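User: Can you model how uracil sits in this protein?
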Amino acid sequence: MLSKIKEDVINMNSDLADLRRKSNVFPVIGEGSHNAEIIFIGEAPGRNEAESGKPFCGRAGQILDELLNSINLSRKDVYITNIVKDRPPNNRDPLPSEIEEYGPFLDRQIEIIKPKIIATLGRFSAQYILSKYGVTNILPITKINGKVFEVNGLKIITLLHPASTIYDSSKKKGLVDGFKILNYNLKHDN
Ligand code: URA
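Assistant: Here's the modeled complex, given as C-alpha cells:
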C-alpha cells in the first residue's frame, strides 16, 4: 500500500531523514492517481516541496503543469514522485548512496501503481530507471530526451528535467517535443 510506503519513509534512518526531522519539514512521497497510466519521476524535493510535502510545487512544478496542460493532462490524471524523498541540503545533486537508500521506495510505488509509461525527468531519474530495467550504455539526457525504451510491455520515456528550461530557454522546445512523444505513446498502445 502507498500509505505503508509513506510510513516507512517517515520513519527511515538516513542522514537526509535526520535532517528533515531536525528541520521540521516533510518527506515528499508522491501525489496523484494511484491508478495512473503514467508515473513521472523527478530527482528530489527542493525547498518548496519539503515545506509542503508535495512534489514539484515550485518553479519547476509550474513548468511541469504547463507541459501537462499542453497534452491535455492534469496532475490528477498522473502520478508524480521523485527518486529521493527527502530534500538534499542546498538543493545539491543526490548522492549515489542516497539514490540507493531511497530507490527501493520508488520501486515499491511502481509495483503498486503498475503504470503503462514511466516518464523520467532529468538525468538521475533516467539513469536509475533505465538501469533498473536492464538498459545499458545510457547516453547523456540531452541525447535521449523524448526517447522511448520498451521493456516487457512497459514504456520508459526519458525527458529533460523541467528545471533545465529555467536557465536555458532553448531546452523548452525539446521538452515540449518530448511531451508530444509521451502523448502519442499514451494514445497508441501498439
Ligand atoms: N525537482 C525535482 O526533481 N523534484 C521536485 O519535486 C521538485 C523539483
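A couple of observations from the model: The longest helix spans residues 96-113. The chain has a mean pLDDT of 96.
User: Helpful, thanks.
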